[in-house]
Design a protein that fits this description.
The chain has no helices and 9 strands. The chain has 114 residues and is mostly beta strands. The strands form 3 sheets. The protein has a 4-stranded antiparallel β-sheet, with no helix packed on it. The protein has a 3-stranded antiparallel β-sheet with strand order 7-8-9, with no helix packed on it. Strands 1-2 form a two-stranded antiparallel sheet.
Length: 114
């Protein structure tokens, strides 16, 4: 669920989304320069950057390529207007335990991985 309040705390609107955006992976929500929002949505192995307008309606989704060993958790916007998605990847080794490494993915301003 996404809720928008005004500066006095009065409810402006609320939106309930399908399972993919309510996933535990939806940890970051950022305002965009156009008055909307961007968030990570989806589930492990199937991540997207979801752009929403100022009313909280999804207007665009862009897939983030990941593998079965990747988990994405954080989102920030760069000075170029693009986005940086952070998480970790499990590096499978012959002898447990596996090793975790930081995973960073850069997108352009439209949310597309280049």
């Amino acid at each position: 669920m996404l809720v928008k309040n005004d500066s006095e705390g009065t409810l402006v609107w609320e939106k309930t989304f399908a399972t993919s955006i309510e996933s535990p992976r939806q940890n970051s929500l950022l305002p965009t320069k156009d008055g909307g929002f961007i968030t990570l949505c989806g589930e492990r192995f199937n991540y997207n950057l979801c752009k929403m307008n100022s009313l909280g309606e999804i207007v665009e989704t862009n897939p983030i390529p990941t593998s079965a060993y990747d988990s994405l958790y954080s989102l920030s916007q760069g000075i170029d207007g693009g986005y940086l998605v952070a998480g970790f990847t499990d590096v499978v080794t012959p002898n447990p335990p596996s090793d975790r490494q930081v995973l960073l993915i850069k997108t352009d301003a439209s949310g597309k991985v280049r």
